[in-house]
UniProtKB/TrEMBL annotation:
Taxonomy, superkingdom: Bacteria
Keywords per UniProt: Amino-acid transport, Signal, Transport
GO annotation terms (biological process): amino acid transport
Gene3D superfamilies xrefs: 3.40.50.2300
Species whose genome carries this gene: Pseudooceanicola lipolyticus
Signal peptide: 1-20
Occurrences of domain Leucine-binding protein (ranges): 21-363
InterPro entries documented for this protein: BCAA_transport, Leu-bd, Peripla_BP_I
Family under the similarity heading: Belongs to the leucine-binding protein family.
Pfam families found in the cross-reference section: Peripla_BP_6 (PF13458)
Name listed for the protein in its UniProt record: ABC transporter permease
Length: 390
């Protein structure tokens, strides 16, 4: 009888071991205005998990299960879905979302459940700033990294800048960080313009910017911070800001948005990623595999999703499993990991991934229906003094 009981117990333990799995929730805006960003993020996440596990989609023999949930870009829904992922689906780690507003709603849920949320690709500084808690890590760049790199690319003595941004956390945090970053370059901001996220007619906003800038002397730039559709660059460029001596400038974006850049050859800015810029083994693999599978290059947010996937795997390996959140936090603080952008490092103080950015100049190239961001120089993580805001 004892032998039978021992055999049964052993069978149960073997079954439990065989069924053990690592559950990752990807909570992102699959539908809505940012669905193109979301699709890239998910493709990148899955490719990152694949790359970091050598194609097995297992860590130490435990299979990875990815649970997808659609926030529809609604903060309350994102908050509820994260609670559902942790509470009902037993996800040990969550990744997402796309929208900064949704991310801010989700942050307290990670703290309540005491589980890791890797924010990718939401950008607002406040995510790893005033609204941060110790369960939050971010692989995506933050507004300060965008701002400081663009200030390096665009600033200088005698330069005057106006800004146009969407009226929510992404836009306002981005302008605030850009304003602060410009102070050390000798440039100044003459006007800030905020418009609704779904704006398609920029006539009134552009007129206010032109009126604020037209009588100023020296070099003048309109710096646009934008996510999603609407094409503010193309539409404002069609209004001929050059008659007032104003040049349009912006950061990087997805390939579809770069079609507007083709109308602005020579435009400069700083970008998070363009597939032809980084030179490293991870990016080589991503570019080759993405062309092979999708007959297209990896895009802006594909690289970010892949970075998050790699971070998940490296953290779990280093922590010795996914079940102990405290062990994961210890493993991730200060952790360096290789991504399509090169080395990233989670800063211990706020868990923001420190990373390179790229100063670019737009070129029109044969065979490409968009303006190509060609590298001027890499801005290394050590060159950017990114504030700790929490």
């Amino acid at each position: 009888m004892k032998t039978l009981f021992a055999a049964s117990a052993a069978a149960i333990l073997l079954a439990q071991a065989a069924s053990a799995e690592i559950r990752i929730a990807h909570i992102y805006g699959k539908t809505g205005a940012l669905e193109a960003y979301a699709a890239q993020s998910h493709t990148g996440l899955m490719m990152g998990l694949e790359y970091a596990t050598g194609g097995t989609m297992e860590i130490d023999g435990e299979p990875i299960v990815v649970i997808e949930k659609d926030t529809q870009l609604k903060p309350d829904l994102g908050k509820a879905l994260l609670a559902e992922a942790y509470g009902d689906d037993d996800a040990q780690i969550a990744v997402g979302p796309v929208s900064s507003g949704v991310a801010l709603a989700m942050l307290p849920v990670a703290e309540e459940y005491e589980r890791i949320l890797i924010v990718e690709p939401a950008v607002a500084d406040s995510i790893t700033g005033e609204n941060w808690n110790r369960y939050i890590f971010r692989t995506g760049r933050n507004s300060s990294q965008d701002a400081i790199s663009n200030a390096v690319a665009l600033g200088g003595e005698g330069v005057t800048v106006a800004t146009l941004a969407q009226d929510y956390a992404f836009g306002r945090d981005g302008v605030a960080a850009f304003r602060e970053a410009l102070e050390g370059t000798g440039a100044s901001i003459a006007h800030e313009e905020y418009v609704p996220t779904d704006t398609t007619d920029f006539t009134a906003a552009a007129e206010r910017i032109f009126n604020a800038m037209k009588d100023l002397e020296g070099e003048k730039k309109l710096f646009i911070i934008w996510a999603g559709g609407g094409n503010p660059m193309g539409k404002i460029n069609a209004m001929d800001p050059s008659r007032f001596g104003i040049e349009i400038a912006t950061g990087g974006n997805i390939l579809a948005a770069l079609t507007a850049y083709k109308e602005l050859p020579g435009m400069e800015g700083a970008t998070y990623y363009y597939y032809e810029i980084p030179e490293n083994a991870v990016n080589d693999w991503l570019v080759e595999e993405h062309f092979k599978r999708f007959d297209s290059p990896p895009d802006f947010f594909t690289a970010g999703g892949m970075s998050a996937g790699i971070a998940v795997v490296e953290a779990i390996k280093k922590a010795g499993g996914a079940d102990d959140t405290e062990a994961l936090i210890t493993a991730m603080e200060g952790m360096e990991f290789e991504t399509p952008k090169g080395t990233m490092m989670f800063r211990p103080e706020d868990h923001q991934a420190m990373q390179s950015m790229y100063h670019f100049r737009t070129e029109v190239q044969e065979g490409k229906d968009y303006g190509v961001p060609v590298l001027v120089r890499e801005i290394g993580m050590d060159e950017m003094d990114i504030p700790i805001r929490n």
